[in-house]
Amino acid sequence: MVWNGGRHESGQQMVGRHAEREAIGRLLDAVRDGLSGVLVLTGEPGIGKTRLLEYAAARARELRVVRLTAAEPETGLGFGALHQLLRPFLNRTDRLPGPQRAALDAALGLVPGPPADRYLVGLATLTLLSEATADQPLLFLLDDAQWLDRESAETLAFVARRLHADSLGLIIAVRDGLGDDGLFDALSVHSVTGLPESEARNLLFSVPRRVDADVADRIVAGTGGNPLALLELADALAAEQLSGIAPLPDPLPVGRLLEGHFQQLVRALPPETGTLLLLLAAAPSDDTGLMWRAAGRLGLSARAAQPAVAAGILGRDTPAAFRHPLIRSTVYATAEPGERRRAHAALAAACDPVRDADRRAWHRAEAAEGVDDDVADDLAAASERARSRGGYSQQARFLSRAADFTGDPDKRADRLLDAAQAHLVSGDAAAARIALDLAGAGISGPVMRTRELRMRATAQMFRIAVADVPAMLMDAVSRLGPRDPRLTWELLREALHAALVADGCPQTTSLTEVAMAVVAARHAPDTAAYGRDVLMEGLARRVAEGYEHGASVLRTALDRLRDGAEIGDANSPFAVVLSMACDDLWDVRAERELSDRLAAADRDAGALYALSMTLLVAARCDLWDGRFTEAEVRYAEFDDIAADTGFRGGGDINRLHLFALAGREPELQEAVRQTAVMKSMGHGLLQLLAQHALSLFELGQGRYGQALRHARAVFEGDPPACGNLVLPLLIEAGVRTGDRAVTLAALSRLEERAPLAGTPWALGALALGRALTADGDEAEKLYQESVDVLGQAPLALEQARVRLLFGEWLRRRKRRSDARKQLRAAYESFDAFGAVPYAERARIELLATGETARRRTVDTRFDLTPRERQVASMAASGLTNGEIATRLFVTASTVEFHLNKVFRKLGITSRKQIPRAIGEPDPVAGD
């Protein structure tokens, strides 16, 4: 099948495209073998993307092929393309887990319900399609993806990234420079370029008209090998020009010709046929009935389509379908504005006012001119329906259009602010800023100005640019005044969160100023958010009034959170401030328990951004307990989610402490370098966390001077996130370097704060700090106390560090036998964790006692990839494949695929053998 003058000629072999055909062949083979494949074809109009989709369909006869061509007029209809794509499979939704089914039903408007979370919609789509492949492998072909509505595009990108072993293929064609906002960049992308010279000539010579060889060379060069441009020129140029008798245009009008040729074909048709084509271009591709009803209102009959079929514009077999997506785009884009309004008015009149209320509102808007409050109100109502489905991009689009037709300046500005908020919820901060700018001078009054400032601050946070945010939010508080105490408190909470993250970097407004404002504004918390509110108050008092004032409030907050049902808001990364509070009290048990509960709640809600932050907190807990492999699993999942959500804060910068403890110096130094870049964007806390990680690394290497320098920076900054955790590190470095002043200052702070915290970690750290500065029997007693107390919490790494220090102290006192006991325990722990520098330090100390120790060997379980380790761990805990799939946002078949690889790598044959093989307790044996 090739292009010929705008027509398809079946039965002819495709010219060239060997690399593309091989890629498609590999994808189809993978799908036939039970795996999955995704291919994104990008290129300019006419380059052959649609032809490659047709090639794929022809080669997939034993697969069920589902095709969809997106259309520009429907870009604003949220989840519209997804609905078309899933329509053949909606009879299977009763097989979905409850939350997934509810989310998908709400998104597609099948049943009323709360707004759908977009990631639950993605998981529901993934599960539904995977379920459908049980009957027959599937191939989805999506053309003109640049015109997808944002919600559908996000869902399909999410599904594409999660496909693995699902007998499902997805090939997406997208025009260069339009549309997808980089959603498909993380997939397998193939750029389709012009045909090579020899193949382009062969294609040109395949047309019925005679083309001179020299003319062919010029056409090939002038078109860059674009197949559609070659064939259009062969069809559009005069015979004298093709034969070389008359000169060719110079330069060849290729860019305009692609659309101009189709436009010329359409204009040559009878007027009623042109009107029918415009209706077809503006109507939904899956509802030809609407188009024919609109045609009837304009007095058009089916006979009007025949000239377009004869001209090769519409298909012969399906006369209500354009031969090529570019023709549809051209018909719509080049129509006169008055003609477009007339077509949309007919479509609006033909829409059912109840069943098709949203499309009716949109067509009415496209048919209107100037201020029209009736149309604006219709669009505003449609925006509320979009919001109820979770279609926030669609909501924003409806509201922005409603603002265009709104006469009252205040109401117009209010609708633009609502549109900006919807854009933020959808994750499109750039579009939110545009809406806020459009609201501009129309924003009046302190409440509207407060809303604007809050949204601009949120948009900054989306860009992970934090420095200006505290000042912006404090300005919003000032403008709001006493009008709304609850809103004031929310703004202050957000400002404190941003100021804590910025730590030392806020512009014009300091962390202390924000904290003082939070303390001054404290009011009776509402019941639902009691624990969260008190926790924020505790952090504020810690900063504004001192540790002794903040610690008791933080303890109250953590106790309430542990005892109560409420844990956090899935729409915000509560885990970040929760981690600060727990670290400030050395309360790793609360941090582990609450982060696990948060993760479960985030997964149930499909709140991927919040879950990603929770995973980072849980990974730190894993590190303190020596579970480095589990931490790496969480970091890997974080990176997956960052790719899914477009979050820019992913990557190795989050693995600072893992790199430090594992002795991976090159990666650590690169991650530290990245923190300097992040500090320029206002992330001062991240650089202090890097200094804490470097302190741990240098102590492991025995480079105490460098460790002292890094630890002192954290000590002076004293952030809640690691200001207390660094104290025993600073004392160790101070003792080893002989810096008595630093040692005593750190010990004084530790003695003041640890009793107030009262947790095993705090008291164990205090005993260690005192042991490092004591002598004789008193030091030995304190070391042993530290080992014993730290053993009461999941702190295997810290306990091993104390054993190492205790063993070193015993060896220096010539008590080799006692030293060996502590050093052997420390070495074996570090060796099992993968804490290479500390294991080596313990090994050298053991050698000094006269005992040998083998260097670390890697256990077979560490051959598992992070995803395999994660699946294995969940299976070991007793979860079914379906439950694991739901937690990991993948399919059950993908879980089974990973489990089969786990069995093979570990040399086991059943799930019952997994716990022992990966070194985890058997849940049954523990009951």
TrEMBL record:
Keyword annotations: ATP-binding, Nucleotide-binding
Coiled-coil features, chain-numbered ranges: none
SUPFAM superfamilies membership: C-terminal effector domain of the bipartite response regulators (SSF46894), P-loop containing nucleoside triphosphate hydrolases (SSF52540)
Domain of life: Bacteria
InterPro entries from the UniProt entry: AAA_16, P-loop_NTPase, Sig_transdc_resp-reg_C-effctor, Tscrpt_reg_LuxR_C, WH-like_DNA-bd_sf
Stored Pfam families: AAA_16, GerE
Residue intervals of the HTH luxR-type domain: 857-922
Official protein name in the record: AAA family ATPase
Organism from which the protein derives: Streptomyces hokutonensis
